[in-house]
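Reviewers of the previous submission asked for a worked example of the structure-prediction workflow described in the proposal, so we include one complete record here. The input consisted solely of the amino acid sequence. No template or homolog information was supplied to the procedure at any stage.
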Amino acid sequence: MIVRNRNHDQQGSALLVSLMAVLVLTALAAGLAGYSGAVQKENRVEQDSTRAMYVAEAGLSMGINAVRTGAIAVTDDSLVVGSQGAPIEFSGGGYWYSIVNNHDDTMTVVASATVAGETISLEAVVEEFGEGVYQSALFAGNSSSDATYDMKFGGTGTQADRINGNIYSGGNVRIAGAAVINGQIRANGSITGGTGETNKTQPIPDITAMNYATTAHYNVNSLFASATYVNHTGLGGRAYQVPESNPAHIFRKNPNDRTTNTSATAKDDYFLEDPYEAVNTSSTVSPSNGTRITLAGHDGNPGSNASHKIYYIDGNLWVHNSKLFNFTLYNSGSDPVQLTIVVKGNIYISDNIMYQNASTGGLALIAMKDTAHTDSGNIYFGDPSFGTLERMDAFMYAENNFLDNNLSASGSAKVTVNGNMTAGNQVRINRDYGTQHSKLTVNFDGRLSDGTITLPGLPTAAPQAQGWNVVSWREVAAP
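From that input alone, the workflow returned the following structure tokens.
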């Protein structure tokens, strides 16, 4: 007979339970320690990620500031500052950024930052605001603050207006009929017949600051001081002319066969026509059918090179000849014809003016106000007698208004501008006459705004009104 020791059995069971409890508690403790370590690690990662976000935001701000301060020009394609391997140190981490010029008035800034192995990348798109003088197809600053001013577009069928580029009106915009605006519409007032941005203000170019009377390369009035009064059968009438070596030879002053047109003007009248080139009387509108205008010292011509210069006229400028239809800025060599003509008076355009080389040629026409004459600072469209105006290749700025001379029943049925039209005040061309609508087509020439070509002495808008807006901001995949 075996007698068990109950106390011994109970002690063994208690020991086993205790051992199991110790094992469980040890496992729990190890688990808690591991969990605590994981939480701490996760917290550190989150903290490092947050710090990387802050550093990336600092880098993005620096990139945006680089755009705003002009570190990357509108003609540049990209800019890179720092790199992942050599970041810019900041707050215990480092950032680097890149800027890509989208060449559509926007730039994309991407900034990345790394803190303790955590990398974050942010992207912002910034858009330029404030149209410069030559950045809109049509611009009317409405300097007179006329609340009733409407920039009008209309026409139906083949006579419908077509603007290929941005437009701005310091008043209202009214679009009717089948008119098309292929660009952004901005207005200080209302927009009818289309969609766009309202309550917008745009800076008006500062003409006074340009001081053209002293900064221009050529004072045409002074260059005509020794002019001779010469008859020219091909161009018509007797007029004051200067030698071919004189840079002002591309003008004829006060021709006596056009006194019907000039008798009412307040100043001397200069006509853009070259008496040293053969006359082309073709009515076909094309550069090859235009009477050539060539510059002194250019392509082997007599005199010093007169391209890339500013010509200043205290008077009026006409592109108008009763015998001709077309004028062509011509060059046979590689040096392009590029010039700026500034007029303290009015500009009258009634014949076609074109570039022989559309990719390199450039003409800026600027009409300034003369405080002594109310009718000044305007650019007039249309032939006062015949409807021969069809095409203008030019960047045009009128400190006052764009006005019409004869776009009526007998006037031009269609006018095309390859360049732009900018008015300090208003574009007020009346193109409706009864049931007829004179079609206006403006093809914006972006070569000035994107830096493809440069022209001397262009007026600029108030710099404080220009800038860049951030239009989007988001996190993107890190490299």
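The first strand starts at residue 78 and ends at 81. We consider this example representative of the routine output the project will generate in years two and three.
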